[in-house]
Amino acid sequence: MRNTLLPADAPRLGLGLAALGRPGYINLGHGQDLGAAKDIEAMRQRTFCMLDAAWAAGMRYFDAARSYGLAEAFLGEWLRDREHSAVVGSKWGYTYVAGWRTDADTHEVKDHSLNTLQRQWPETLEALGRRPEVYLIHSATLDTGVLEDQAVLARLAELDAAGVRVGLSTSGPRQADTLRRAMALQVEGLNPLSVVQATWNLLEPSAGPALAEAHAAGWAVVIKEAVANGRLTARGLTGHGDVPPVLAELADKQNATPDAVALAAALTQPWADVVLSGATTPEHLENNLGALHLSLTPVHQEQLMALAYEPTAYWQARSGLPWT
């Protein structure tokens, strides 16, 4: 069994840098959180601040990707400057093309070809200044064909043999189908993939059974978007989303914030090895960390799971979120 990604004494919350490594992202209120200073140096200092706060809270898993602007470079600089040892996950398959603009027509371009993998792996090494512990196909889906590309899989098998845990992240309404296909892969008699990063939250829990299967098979499971890009936060309850009041009511009873309850719901899942916070401010991170101290009863969990959308409707709504 290879589920463990974290040191034994580390909390199961990690920090994702999707909203920190570039000036534009789709979290509700992202532009407001960053303020007017969105130049590279301002973003570097913000990222260092958030990484320092996460480290001080005991967090040891940090997630980046080639398409997260300068997230890998910021993280690599921070690790060298602070001389910290952490578990780093990164991803290949998307290229950042927004040119540091929030109003770009296109922010990232997806390509799961061997050429992209061969180009981006050295770029990741240079940006981080070392190998990541985890390296994932970014948003693998059945329609890209990446899980049928024997050249890509053979290269990932080489990285796995060299000690890098390889896997995939998933997105879209068919996450479970994609994951089950990935679990069935065989490359030279072995499956090189052993990590999955998937969207799971109270609005979109449909991948849960497949994630449980992966965990039981020894895969490490990382949860992303546990607060649904801000829709399961106080912002999502005040005109920016369509979350029923049960989340706010339960948060109030627990003396916590809605995002803490949403993250606690993810942490409650027995197959979740790491749950990512996407915080961009120290206040957000402090609220998110409250999830570690919440205890949700089976009744609470049943009430919260009633918030789930039909998967296609959820992903259609997500695709309509603006980049700010």
Automatic annotation (TrEMBL):
Domain NADP-dependent oxidoreductase: 44-298
CDD domains linked: AKR_unchar (cd19098)
Highest taxon above the source species: Bacteria
Pfam families listed in its UniProt record: Aldo_ket_red
SUPFAM superfamilies, per the entry: NAD(P)-linked oxidoreductase (SSF51430)
Protein name, as recorded: Putative oxidoreductase
